[in-house]
């Protein structure tokens, strides 16, 4: 016996929105009687394009009934775009949680909703629709009629990493087991894709090429923000004199001009900051004194 909480049991014993809608705008049917779980979901939109009424019929366990009931309550009043963003996790959380082995019931509800929305959109486009047929070429798990797209979506939305988890969330692989290798292939393929995406995010971006004017402006900004405040604390100061290629000429002022560790400050503070915020290859040197300053 599964350990269901009071919310799940309430939606099981007193399911909301059960029945049939006359002339629905969208219809979605997922699962099958053969596998033991089937769900048909129907909705009608109001003049503003929001879900005004929604009904469901299901053949399944307590989790399937409760998940379907919860889903209909969640999506009432939403636009189709808002309803599309409802995940199976949202359904499970609305119910206060489901046993891991019964998460496929919340996934089935989400899938029925997506099929119903697509059914509506196809009708709007004037395309032929049949909400009760899945393309055989898309089916990965023949025993339970689970498509590749449904498996991939469950893996991505719930961060699944094992075949057993996929079975819990979709029922795929829970019959003869002939599709388990295919499920593992999908898991491996998605894992590699996630690793590549993570590597791409971690790669340092190529430094932008600055014009001389842009570089001078950035040097001046860095001096004002990162360097001058530190020097002025001890009575010193600094002025940008010139830029020649990657060589930055500066003039140390105030106490810094007479400081015994001025060369250290030039490299450890000024050059370090300019390399960090402007360009890694910059070289900072003390500008030659003007003739009046030498006199």
Would you mind describing this structure in some detail?
With 295 residues, this protein is an alpha+beta fold. The protein contains 12 helices and 8 strands. The protein has 3 domains: 1-131, Alpha-Beta Complex (Sufe protein. Chain: A); 134-203, BFD-like [2Fe-2S]-binding domain (Arc Repressor Mutant, subunit A, Orthogonal Bundle); 212-294, GMP Synthetase, Chain A, domain 3 (2-Layer Sandwich). It has helices at residues 6-13, 62-75, 80-84, 88-94, 103-124, 148-158, 163-170, 180-202, 212-232, 255-258, 262-277, 291-294; strands spanning 26-32, 37-45, 51-59, 139-141, 146-147, 236-244, 247-254, 283-286. The protein has a 3-stranded antiparallel sheet with strand order 1-2-3. The protein has a 3-stranded mixed sheet with strand order 6-7-8. Strand 6 (236-244) and strand 7 (247-254) form a beta hairpin. Helix 4 (88-94) packs across helix 5 (103-124) and helix 9 (212-232) packs across helix 11 (262-277). The longest helix is centred in the middle third of the chain and has 23 residues, at 180-202. The chain is elongated. The relative contact order is 0.08. The mean pLDDT is 85.
Give the biggest beta sheet.
3 strands, antiparallel
Given helix and strand content, the structural type is: alpha+beta
Distance between the termini: 98 Å
Strand order of the largest sheet: 1-2-3
User: What is the CA-based Rg, rounded?
Assistant: 33 Å
Looking at the chains present, what oligomeric state does this protein adopt? single chain
Report the order of strands and helices: HEEEHHHHEEHHHHEEHHEH
Number of strands: 8
- Unreliable stretches: none
Q: And the CATH topology of the largest domain?
A: Sufe protein. Chain: A
Q: Bin the strand percentage.
A: 15-25%
Determine the fraction of residues in helical runs and give it as a percent range: 40-55%
Q: What is the CATH architecture annotation of the largest domain?
A: Alpha-Beta Complex
Q: Can you give the mean pLDDT?
A: 85
Number of helices: 12
Q: How many discrete structural domains?
A: 3
| Shape call | elongated
CATH class of the largest domain: Alpha Beta
């Amino acid at each position: 016996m599964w350990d269901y909480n009071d919310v799940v049991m309430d939606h099981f014993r007193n399911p909301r929105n059960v029945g049939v809608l006359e002339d629905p705008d969208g219809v979605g049917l997922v699962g099958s009687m053969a596998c033991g779980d089937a769900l048909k979901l129907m909705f009608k939109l109001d003049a503003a394009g929001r879900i005004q009424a929604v009904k469901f019929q299901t053949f399944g366990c307590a989790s399937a009934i409760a998940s379907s009931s919860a889903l209909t309550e969640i999506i009432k009043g939403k636009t189709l775009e808002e309803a599309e963003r409802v995940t199976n996790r949202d359904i499970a959380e609305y119910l206060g949680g489901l046993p891991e082995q019964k998460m496929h019931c919340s996934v089935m509800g989400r899938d029925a909703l997506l099929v119903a929305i697509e059914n509506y959109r196809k009708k709007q486009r004037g395309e032929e629709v049949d909400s009760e047929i899945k393309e055989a070429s898309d089916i990965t798990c023949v025993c339970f009629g689970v498509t590749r797209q449904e498996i991939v979506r469950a893996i991505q939305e719930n961060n699944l990493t094992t075949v057993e988890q996929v079975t819990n969330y979709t029922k795929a692989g829970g019959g003869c087991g002939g599709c388990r290798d295919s499920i593992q292939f999908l898991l491996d393929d998605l894992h590699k894709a996630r690793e590549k995406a993570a590597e791409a995010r971690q790669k340092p971006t190529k430094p932008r090429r600055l014009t001389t004017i842009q570089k001078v402006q950035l040097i001046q900004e860095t001096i004002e923000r990162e360097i001058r405040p530190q020097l002025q604390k001890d009575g010193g100061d600094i002025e940008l004199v010139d830029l020649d290629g990657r060589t930055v000429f500066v003039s140390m002022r105030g106490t810094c001009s007479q400081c015994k560790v001025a060369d250290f400050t030039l490299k450890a503070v000024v050059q370090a900051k300019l390399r960090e915020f402007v360009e890694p290859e910059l070289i900072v040197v003390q500008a030659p004194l003007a003739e009046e300053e030498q006199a």
